[in-house]
Amino acid sequence: MPLKIIALGTGVCSNGFCSFPERYPPGFLIDIDGVLMLFDCSEGIRYRVQQAGYDYGYVQHVAISHSHPDHAALPQFLQAKSCRRIFADDHPEFGVCDVYMPTELVNGFADVWRWHVPENEGQYWREFTPRFVPMGEGSSVGIAPGIILKSFPVYHAFGKHPSVAYRLETPYGVIAYSGDSAVCDGLIEAARNATLFICEQGFGLGYNDVMKYGHLTPTNVGEVCVAAEPEHVRLVHYIGLDREEEVIKEIRRAGFQGDVSRAMDMDVWTLE
Ligand SMILES: [Zn+2]
Ligand SMILES: [Zn+2]
Questions:
Q1: How far is ligand 1, taken at its centre, from the CA of residue 99, in Å?
Q2: What is the 3-state secondary structure (H, E, C) of 234-257?
Q3: Confidence of residue 20 (pLDDT cuts 50, 70, 90)
Q4: Which ligand is nearest to the CA of 155?
């Protein structure tokens, strides 16, 4: 079976900017021979996992790029996973969930969970206790035989928000995911020679990020891709205001001549 990636959310933190189709906030389901991983976990993602034909009970790996609310509706997902396990006696495998995220965010999440579940002293349940895996500079974690998740710190949100880009190395090829990021070395390293680069384009054509908040314009996407040379690029984290032809033209003008197009929700990509 090939590796399959389903774009469950190619949008941003807000919606209603363009008529249709709407884009949900970030989330990508990766199926590698039945090993299921999410890149980011936006609000209500379990419904879209189901819509894609999967049971979220089997999603045992969740990699969070950073904790902005549009990327990390994690308490809701963990609660749903817990109850999915508790109400399904015959599925102990639903009780497994490894959550990868920047080290500082692992440390901070205990308080978030306690805020949601004070009646349980901030603990999890016997049937379902997620395992948190801190990720940072140089992190490299074996997910399953032949599958390695690597993280690369990136610049985002004035450089004040712990954020990483991910690189998933598999027998079928390498998938890189920018999370939210400005042009930076970490992003280029994550995407270097990737088979598929899922790349944010949070800023529109011609935007000048004088405040140095940290997203990519189409020009920046071109710069990163010229340096990293990924094989296929799919643009995400986008509200839909610029025309696709104009965006692609600008990426070409910045020097990248490889395969690039804009993603839509429920797009499916395969690697063989
Ligand atoms: Zn974002
Ligand atoms: Zn963000």
A1: 18
A2: EEECCCCCCCHHHHHHHHHHCCCC
A3: low
A4: 2
